[in-house]
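Two proteins, back to back. First:
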Amino acid sequence: MINQTYALNDVTVLDLTDEKGVYTGKLLADMGANVIRIEPLSGNKTRLIGPFFMDRVNEESSLYNWYHNTSKKSITLDISTKEGIEILKKLCLKADILLESFDDNYLEGIGLSYDDISKQNSQLIWTAISGFGRTGPYANYKTTDLVALSLGGPVASCGYDHLPNNPPMCPDGWAGYYTGSHYAAISTLVALIYRDMTNRGQYIDVSIHEAISSSTEAALPMYIYQNAVPLRQTGRHHSINPTPPAIYRCMDGGMIHVFGTPPQDLNRWSKLLEWIQESQDASELFTPRYEEMVTMRNRDSDLMFTLFSYIGHLINSLDSEYVFNRAQSIGLPWGLVRSPEENVSDKHFWERGFFVDISSENDEKPSYFPGAPYIFNKTPWRIHSSAPILGQDNDEIYKLMLNFTTSDIEKLKANKII
């Protein structure tokens, strides 16, 4: 096998996260880091998050666990015991990064703190992921993905404007935890660069609450500078005043999301109006006023709503794939509204190698997983292995990193330490 260089080949990571930060370790592992998942003897609780393959509810059948722990290794360790915490300290002396997402400074409470361990391993990067950060009035408050999105602000900006009283809506898919995990991964990589320059690690305090709050787009600036609260709108940006609907159904039942309209370019404007006129009379739009709209920002004008009514009629009369491709051919950022299962057959994903085959002859796992949204030119990204079975790497890690003998390991197992 060719000795391939990956972005994080020489980095060892200890991963003690739960669902709040488990994705962070995956991002690093798939970039080549040696990520060691340290789990309780019964397994990390994320192993029992559904759905489960073939509805077999056990710690080795969770699709959530399979996806979030690709390329990682797994060891078991009872860190609630004195001997277990001492072993964890020894592992920290051999590691580059520690990822954890415990509540209430749990590790510090049982005898492992960054201040103490950094005196022996000054290069360690300790990334602590929590709901609200490790300081401040909310430091010990609990969170969930729903709480993070609600308290952070995005939920207040999402909703269906055709519903009475337009209640707020929470996006699904662990968006809160993924946002926090991305910020954790980014900040950890920045800390690695700093360490390369100074030989010094650091403690990173990641607040999911703050990560989410930074993703509310214009809602916060609108309130701060205009003392205005934006309206929730279906499938489009929130706004101070109502804007035209952005999603239209095509003749074949598919849907198109319209964006970047009116075009901020006369050439694209002309092509859009020519397209509209092919199927309907849009003469009222062919006036000097349309040139004014090239630089117009007011999306709640009467003319804007008239334009979108023509666009709606146009889209209603055509098939979705045709609309998508023709709009893109004239430079309009319109897109198909697809479900996840529909994207599995998208040839663009497959040609770029986005879906990754993780099957083997000896398992029943799905044959492909979503891959990475980036392609490294020099240090390729890849899923190195499927998610590990609980404790499968005990012998390898304890022998190679801590020089434990087979007898040492058997004794620890007998005493229920590993």
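And the second protein:
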Amino acid sequence: MDPRPFTDPLPLAQALMRRASVTPVEAGVLDLAQGELEALGFRVRRYKFGAVDNLYARFGESAPNFCFAGHLDVVPPGEGWTSDPFAPEVRGGMLYGRGAADMKTAIAAMITASKDFIAEGAPRGSISFLLTCDEEGPAVDGTKRVLEALKAEGERIDHCLVGEPTSEDKVGDTIKNGRRGSLNVVLTMEGKQGHVAYPHRAVNPVTPLIEALAALQARELDHGAPGFDASNLEVTSVDVGNAAHNVIPQRATAKLNIRFNTHHSAEKLVEWIEQITAQAAARAGAKASLNVTSRSVAFYTEPGAFTDLLIAAVSESFGHTPVLATTGGTSDARFIKDVCPVAELGLRNETAHMVDEHVAVEDVRTLARCYQAVLRRYFG
């Protein structure tokens, strides 16, 4: 038996999950986390920007400052649950409810791991928490704004671990030390409506739109970057909305997404798309416009002492060696990378955002032990 203290994270996880904190509604979930952290001796500051509430807490005064980060907002539950998504239940060793995988359980594991680590003696440095209710939404008034405020106040974070559900087949098999950037763009071509029998009197916007899309897809963006696969562009929709066979339409639109590595920036990619579409429009006598609906940057933490520490903690706790990966969607780590080395480690992502979202109870407990092992190694 391990003689070191261990607090079961399940009760706190369930308490957090009972708060219906659908982005950006706080619903008391940060109040609950604040009470838990203050009871451990953390100094808590709340940051509210617009409709979004955020929390930063710190235990200790000295460096280094190790930060646990994550979000307590969740996506809407949807329909078809076998139990109330905001009344978490344990069935067959599984915890069911919205936020089970993504990622209220990880926050609970981080808090209880910190409690048990502090009970062993004050760390030689500081432990902090950065929690937001704006990760699943626009991510404008959440982590990004808090980091700006902390910088203005002179607060320094040395390393950060985000509790996103990174694991695939078994918990602890994957640590994310990077993520691709993502760019969503809507292209619109404006032409001139007319009769198909008199094309010289009209400007068909479909022709330059197809030409622009073909040129965009023809470019090989890159062959990959350190830690990353090749960037890729996907056309996800082409819309004209023309019910008639004998009418040249006025307007045609297309949606595309680019998942890109560290060879690119969203700004440069937008400039390239603008250039290609403007050239195609000019040749056809049409008018092109772009609407960038979302953009997020790529980030990458070089393998080294920090990732080695995380790998060792996972191996100790789960009994297998994780791989470092940069696959998947985006997370708030893309903002944190500007202030310190950051990585992500959490539960399996298999049921994240799904109806009947669930995780194994023992995985949550082992994750808490793993986070405790991270703290011991970091401050040891």
